[in-house]
Design brief:
The N and C termini lie close together (8 Å). It contains 13 helices and 17 strands. α11 (325-342) packs across α12 (352-364). It has helices at residues 85-98, 103-118, 133-145, 169-183, 204-217, 229-238, 245-250, 271-280, 288-293, 301-307, 325-342, 352-364, 397-407, and strands spanning 6-15, 21-32, 35-40, 52-62, 64-70, 122-128, 149-153, 155-156, 190-192, 195-196, 221-225, 261-265, 283-286, 311-313, 381-384, 413-418, 421-422. The protein is globular, with a radius of gyration of 21 Å. It is of the alpha/beta class. The strands form 4 sheets. It has a 7-stranded mixed beta sheet with strand order 3-2-1-4-15-16-17. The protein has a 4-stranded parallel beta sheet with strand order 5-6-7-9. A 4-stranded parallel beta sheet has the order 11-12-13-14. 36% of the residues lie in helices and 22% in strands.
Length: 424
């Protein structure tokens, strides 16, 4: 454990935009009251009395952000990966999530999930819970204790789901408001986020009620968008009045116009939907592993970046089988190459620098000043250990970072700092 005022020395790597990786070799990161004052080639005179953690030749990067994952799905990750989205939801997801009505089951499962995130490179996350208020409040408690900064959502769904995992519309809205009132000021690092599961599971009446809650409490929103071809067609049938899937959210102020929103996937978002996202400042959570596992497709992330749509990465556990954002960075590059080679050669593949941006500053900006080393932001960073992958020739710091992303991961973290304190 270190004090809130300290200095860290090492090689710093961070993003100043999708295509600008900044490297500061042998520099000093000054932290005061748990916040970053700046990175300097020498220790400023006024800070020379502060404790200095000298990590020598090690790489230091910002904490990672996971913009989309499901807490209750953690315990069955890696199962049912031979199915597509809608079958997978009905066979595995809904039956498992229904179990969280039993609070003791929820507590055991969420402790495992929170401990995994604590030991991971993830410092910030946007998380789905279940429809159960008590279980979702417990999930928030566990993430707070683990030192994770998070938005956590009590899921809403009142149609097209199993009878034992379905809410009545009025009760869903009332229960959600009670949950908001219970949790909005309860935690330091964890806050509520409105969470309509997706349009097929939410009636217009439920969406209207959530829109009113958004207007009243000014909460952000998370949901799913244009993930799977069958899902997109289903939304067209359910909402023939909507010009696109996103418009079915936007009608109720739940697509960025009424407050911050993040939509996962966007594999099949057409130009009018993307234009609406750009207009509203709606974030995209790109989930390459889940989109591969559930045979959804490959999102055109290059187009998102070219359009200036704010974008980050999501592990989407348990559609994704790994909670590692490091791994997701590499997979984002790999699937973009497949799309470029096999489907749309006008969209160049992502570079590793761009993927690093998506997993740090790109997704982190959903929280404000996060995912980089901006002055005034919280001291959240990772000290990397490359000792397991010795190299035979001198490498630049940027190439060492690339190598780490491909060859290492959570087990190669030396230290994790979050909220201005050392987590491990």
């Amino acid at each position: 454990m270190v004090d809130k005022d300290f200095i860290v020395k090492g090689h710093f790597c961070f993003s100043e935009g999708p295509r600008k990786l900044v490297v500061k070799e042998n520099h000093y990161l000054v932290c005061e009251e748990g916040r970053i004052k700046g990175i300097f080639p020498q220790i400023p005179d006024q800070n020379k009395g502060m404790a200095c953690l000298d990590y020598g030749d090690r790489l230091i990067i910002p904490g990672l952000t996971d913009l989309h994952l499901h807490g209750p799905q953690y315990v069955f990750r890696g199962i049912g990966m031979d199915q597509e989205l809608l079958d997978w939801l009905n066979t595995w997801t809904f039956p498992e999530e229904a179990k969280y009505r039993e609070i003791e089951y929820a507590k055991r499962a969420y402790r495992l999930f929170a401990q995994d995130l604590r030991q991971s490179a993830t410092c910030r996350a946007v998380v789905f819970g279940t429809i159960h208020r008590e279980a979702t409040e417990y999930l928030m408690e566990e993430l707070e204790a683990a030192g994770i900064t998070a938005y956590v959502g009590k899921v809403n769904m009142d149609r097209n789901c199993p009878e034992n995992y379905r809410e009545e519309t009025k009760a869903s809205i009332e229960d959600t408001e009670m949950w908001i009132q219970n949790t909005a000021e309860k935690f330091t690092r964890v806050k509520p986020i409105l969470t309509p599961r997706f349009i097929p599971a939410c009636s217009d009446g439920l969406m209207e009620g959530l829109g009113r809650l958004q207007e009243k409490y000014h909460l952000p929103v998370q949901s799913h968008l244009s993930e799977n071809k069958s899902e997109v067609q289903w939304v067209k049938e359910l909402c023939p009045w909507a010009e696109c899937y996103g418009a079915a959210y936007d009608r109720f102020g739940l697509f960025g116009s009424g407050g911050p929103a993040v939509m996962a996937h966007c594999v099949y978002s057409e130009e009018n939907e993307l234009a609406l996202m750009k207009k509203n400042g709606t974030y995209i959570a790109h989930c390459p592993q889940s989109n591969t596992n559930l045979a959804s497709g490959i999102a055109p992330v290059r187009r998102f970046l070219e359009m200036g749509i704010p974008t980050g990465l999501g592990t989407d556990v348990a559609g994704g089988h790994s909670s590692s954002v490091f791994r997701t960075m590499v997979e984002a590059v790999q699937v973009s190459k497949l799309r470029w080679r096999l489907a749309e050669d006008t969209l160049k593949p992502l570079t590793i620098e761009e993927a690093f941006y998506l997993g740090t500053a790109g997704g982190g900006s959903f929280f404000g000043k996060a995912g980089s080393f901006q002055e005034g932001s919280e001291a959240e960073f990772l000290v990397l250990d490359e000792s397991r992958i010795p190299y035979m020739k001198e490498l630049s710091v940027a190439r060492r970072l690339e190598r780490y992303l491909y060859l290492c991961g959570e087990k190669d973290l030396l230290h994790k700092f979050s909220g201005g304190r050392m987590i491990f």
